[in-house]
């Protein structure tokens, strides 16, 4: 058998790599490993073996159906109860007396909730006219898509679909709008996308409400659709879940509805379903 000779330099390099791995208690990473935190990278959460057990390993329609069953087991709250819930779910981490407004990013006093200029009110991220569910208990009171927002900014958004482009406006915080669409500020683009995807999975038309779906259009009017799908998918990828969004998901699960937004826990499931 021929003898394979390894140069002293190569031996030293191999030994150095092996030693470093042992000292760190790690195995050297594989080449071309996915970037940490990317939305397309499969994640593992503490709920995979319990809450999501029936969904793990599935994809496409089977995954969507399984998630619908899982998240439909929830405690519903009234629209009036949403006020106090938002004061907890959206509390400013730097000021416990305030909430963070979704589109504008402003920190505003919890007590300033109402309908006057300078107040914050309850924004339906999935516009309640898209499916005509109003504020009735159910999709109209689901905390996973209700967020505090400045009264006037809420009015600017109205029931517009989501897309890129537009112009700034007062208290926009970087959000933009045009005649038929709304683009939230960069820091919450993914949050908005994952709320929309949650609603499209949670409300499938089997419980007396419209079958909500994401499509590729704007100007959806009162139809139970919101767009644009490709844009929302990009936002989900470019703005992965942060600590604020994860905490919010946990608070809703633990203290209010006892269900989760699966796309916060597993943002890669967006691509699997859509």
Automatic annotation (TrEMBL):
Keywords: Hydrolase, Nuclease, Signal. InterPro entries: Endonuclease-I, His-Me_finger_sf, TAT_signal. Pfam families: Endonuclease_1. The keyword Hydrolase applies. GO terms for molecular function: hydrolase activity; nuclease activity. SUPFAM superfamilies: His-Me finger endonucleases. Residues 164-175 have a biased composition (Low complexity). Coiled coil: none annotated. It comes from the Bacteria. Residues 1-38 form the signal peptide. Residues 156-184 are annotated as: Disordered. PANTHER family: ENDONUCLEASE-1. This is Ribonuclease. It comes from Streptomyces caelestis.
């Amino acid at each position: 058998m021929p003898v394979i000779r390894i140069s002293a330099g190569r031996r030293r390099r191999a030994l150095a790599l092996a030693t470093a791995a042992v000292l760190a208690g790690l195995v050297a990473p594989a080449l071309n490993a996915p970037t940490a935190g990317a939305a397309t990278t499969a994640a593992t959460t503490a709920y995979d073996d319990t809450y999501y057990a029936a969904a793990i390993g599935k994809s496409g329609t089977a995954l969507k159906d399984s998630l619908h069953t899982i998240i439909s087991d929830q405690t519903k709250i009234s629209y009036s109860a949403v006020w106090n819930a938002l004061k907890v779910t959206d509390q400013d981490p730097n000021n416990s007396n305030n909430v963070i407004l979704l589109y504008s990013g402003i920190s505003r006093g919890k007590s300033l909730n109402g309908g006057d200029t300078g107040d914050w009110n309850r924004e339906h991220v999935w516009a309640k006219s898209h499916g005509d569910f109003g504020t009735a208990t159910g999709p109209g009171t689901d905390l996973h898509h209700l967020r505090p927002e400045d009264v006037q900014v809420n009015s600017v958004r109205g029931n517009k679909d989501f897309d890129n482009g537009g112009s700034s406006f007062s208290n926009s915080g970087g959000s933009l709008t045009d005649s038929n669409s709304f683009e939230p500020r960069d820091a919450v683009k993914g949050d908005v996308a994952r709320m929309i995807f949650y609603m499209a999975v949670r409300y499938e038309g089997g419980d007396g409400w419209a079958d909500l779906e994401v499509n590729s259009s704007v100007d959806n009017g009162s139809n139970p659709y919101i767009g644009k799908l490709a844009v929302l998918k990009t936002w989900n990828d470019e703005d992965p879940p942060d600590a604020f969004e994860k905490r919010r998901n946990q608070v809703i699960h633990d203290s209010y509805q006892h269900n989760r937004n699966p796309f916060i826990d597993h943002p890669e499931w967006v691509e699997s379903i859509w």
